[in-house]
Amino acid sequence: MRSLLLSIGFIVCMMMQPAFALLEIEISQGVESALPIAVTAISSDSSSQTRLITQVISADLHHSGLLGVVERERYPDGLINKKQVEYQQWRDNGIEALLVVSTQSISADQFRVEFFLYDLVRNKRSLAHTVNSNSQSLRRVAHKISDVVFKSLIGMRGAFSTRIAYITEMGIGKEKQYILRVADADGHNPRSVFMSNKQLMSPVWSSNGSKLAYVSFENERSEIFIQDMASGKREKVSSAPGLNSAPAWSPNDQQLALTLSQDGDPNIYILDLQSGKKRQVTSHYGIDTEPTWSADGDSIYFTSNRSGSPQIYRLSLSGGKAERISFNGRYNAAAALSPNGELLAMVHNNGQGYRIGVLNLRNDSFHVITDGGLDEAPSFAPNGSMIIFSTRRSGSTILSAVSADGRVQQQFRLQAGKVREPTWSPFR
């Protein structure tokens, strides 16, 4: 029950590696029918810039689980030319799509990046784009290219150029440090947002991706802060007596839903960020916590044990009683809504451990999509295709991601240490 009071999921104390360590993605399960694609440079381009871009794109597309990046050994013999493609030769090698990248230097630290996508099945070039970049932006440009290619081939906007935020812990005893970090969606470019020798928890992105709200115990009690990502400025927005936890941004970023126990039992409140006024929206002797907003901002979903065990409820903010919506299993908590408002991911327990389940709000169908024993803190990618969460594997706490249908699974590993409470940013 402590998780209901303090965080989305369980509080797990964990050791962590140095601040510069990367999250490395491993595909643990993909789609057998993944579309085979070759990613390469034109034969005349051996620049380090192009190598980096093709490496990043290849990793992005591979990690999607829906595209199979073929090894160079399967490429047909001959020069790779962006102006002339021997479609049949590539098809004969079992390749259905070809991405060709070229980089040209246009000044001291400016590059022109060209990319061409060929549909080898239909014998046509489907994309041809040019973008400028400097050396510091090459990875971001590569992620953007991955987004475009993924959309062209799969029909869904890619989320490779987004970010993830997460909590790490390093040191032991009095030397322990809690760190709120942000990294690219592929785990690269990690940076520390805030560090404390007291517990940090429940980070959540604003809808426009410019701010993070989170809970800090730096003053020996739970308080909610908002941190601007561009300036680094922090603002304490809730320090009521008792519990201050589980912040959740409204779709317009003008309000926070949060859990307060200032009047006794933990209940859901709405904080107007401009006026600072709080409005209580639930009132129950049990525990109401972990709010998340509906896509239209007219209602909230939250966890409550008012039925005897933690379950998910929906409450219209215009009035009325809370409606229970989770009925599968003895435990459902920490709801996360998909960007289109159709799917609700949650931590689910039916007697076989804590796993991630997905409820389809259109037809009330429910599916368990993970097989862990202690999965927690689900968060949707902004395109709704993947859900990131923390889990325990072989005695270690790591981040994992799973497609909303459960067919694709990934693991984000660190060379040493553990990580928890991930949250996926919106599109940039």
Walk me through this protein's architecture.
This protein has 428 residues and is mainly β. The protein folds into 2 domains: 2-21 and 161-424, Neuraminidase (6 Propeller), CATH 2.120.10.30; 33-154, Rossmann fold. The chain has helices at residues 2-6, 48-63, 87-92, 138-154; strands at 24-29, 35-41, 67-69, 97-107, 110-119, 124-133, 163-170, 177-184, 191-196, 200-205, 211-216, 223-228, 234-238, 244-249, 255-260, 267-272, 278-280, 288-293, 299-304, 311-316, 323-324, 331-337, 343-349, 354-360, 366-368, 376-380, 386-393, 396-403, 409-413, 419-424. The strands form 7 sheets. A 5-stranded antiparallel beta sheet has the order 1-29-28-27-26, with no helix packed on it. The protein has a 5-stranded mixed beta sheet with strand order 3-2-4-5-6, with helices on one face.
- Based on CA atoms alone, the radius of gyration comes out at 23 Å
Biggest sheet, in brief? Answer: 5 strands, antiparallel
Taken from the alpha-carbon principal axes, the silhouette is: globular
Q: Report mean pLDDT, rounded to a whole number.
A: 90
CATH class of the largest domain: Mainly Beta
* Count of the separate structural domains: 2
The total beta strand count reads: 30
Beta-sheet strand percentage? 35-45%
- Structural class by sheet pairing and helices: mainly beta
The number of helical runs is 4
Based on the structure given, which CATH architecture of the largest domain is correct? 6 Propeller
Major beta sheet, strand line-up: 1-29-28-27-26
Percent of residues in helices comes to 10-25%
| Low-confidence region ranges | 1-20
CATH homologous superfamily name of the largest domain?
TolB, C-terminal domain
CATH topology of the largest domain: Neuraminidase
